[in-house]
Design a protein that fits this description.
2 helices, Nucleoside Triphosphate Pyrophosphohydrolase, 126 residues
């Protein structure tokens, strides 16, 4: 089993979660990256954010973990983002919540089955 860190960026104004589709990927998902041996959660979080989004500053909160296949995915809610833009490896961005009817590529099951219900239960998304 390997650890991964997932980045959950929520817009309070939109009451929605930011999802990305990396170039060549089939699904939109949250930015997620493998945690290397000896790498702290904070280091992995920063690397994952850098690979998907260029950010100026973030504040994060660990809100849980979920086993997905053979991976333990640590969920980090980004509670403050000053500014970001997609990295060149990103093929698309979208804001989604539990009422969204995607008109784009499908959402990854991690988003639909785990992340959105968790965020809705916390009152962060519609």
């Amino acid at each position: 089993m390997s650890d991964q860190v997932a980045v959950l960026i929520v817009s309070p104004e939109r009451r929605a979660l930011l999802v990305v589709r990396m170039r060549g990927a089939l699904h939109y998902t949250v930015p997620i990256g493998p945690q290397l041996p000896g790498q702290s959660d904070a280091e992995c979080l920063l690397e994952t954010l850098t690979n998907a989004l260029s950010v100026v500053d973030v504040t994060s909160e660990h809100i849980g973990a979920q086993t997905v296949g053979d991976n333990q995915v640590k969920l980090y809610l980004i509670t403050s983002v000053l500014w970001f833009y997609p990295a060149p490896t990103v093929g698309g961005l979208a804001w989604v919540n539990t009422t969204t009817e995607p008109t784009f590529d499908p959402l990854d099951p991690l988003v639909t089955d785990t992340v959105l219900p968790l965020l809705k239960a916390r009152g962060l998304v519609d």
